[in-house]
Amino acid sequence: QEKVLSPPATKRARKSATDEDGAAAAADAAAMEMQHEEEEEGFLICCGRRATPLNLEMPRKRQLPLRVDPSETTKKKRKVMDAEEMATRIRKQNRAAAKKYRERMKMKRKEMGKEEEQLEEEKWRLVQQVQQLTTEVEEFKGKLLQIALRSTFPNEDNG
């Protein structure tokens, strides 16, 4: 354990430590004296730690304003409601929430309607494209069939 000496106790310990004969005894005596002084001053020594007493005469770091506006500090008192007032308040809140919900749903339905129209237009365009590609495939099949028939029987065309 390391002992911390206060300045006056340190000086006393140094004076008595200069005597070579009683250096160890003087150090022990100084430490005991210092511990006794600290206990009187309010220091507590426990588990090798020191605690200083609170100095209540020190000024605060943050001081409160001298003048306080009463409007800033007074809190609004809650009104005690009876059952009927409470029910009315709850109904009013419920109506507002229901109205907000209905408006949200209305907007959602509108957006879904717009999206549905866009998807229907795209579907119609894709159906038209499928029909066009189907007719092209049929035309190419016919041409390919004609070319295939001509190449398999070349002598029949000549006679």
How are the secondary structure elements laid out?
Elements: H1 7-17, H2 23-41, E1 44-46, E2 49-51, H3 70-73, H4 83-152, H5 154-158
Antiparallel strand pairs: 1-2
Helix pairs in contact: 1-2
Brief account:
This is BZIP domain-containing protein. Helices cover 69% and strands 4% of the residues.
DSSP, total strands: 2
Secondary structure category = mainly alpha
Q: If helices are DSSP runs of H or I spanning 4 or more residues, what is the number of helices? A: 5
Radius of gyration: 50 Å
Strand arrangement, major sheet:
1-2
**Helicity level, as a percent range?**
55-70%
Biased composition (Low complexity): 23-33
Organism: Pristionchus fissidentatus
Region (Disordered): 1-36, 62-120
GO molecular function, one term: DNA-binding transcription factor activity
Can you offer a commentary on this structure?
The protein is elongated. It has helices spanning 7-17, 23-41, 70-73, 83-152, 154-158; strands at residues 44-46, 49-51. It has 5 helices and 2 strands, in the order ααββααα. The protein is mostly helical and 159 residues long. It has a domain at 7-51.
Structural features:
mainly alpha; two-stranded antiparallel sheet; 4% strand; 159 residues; 5 helices; single chain
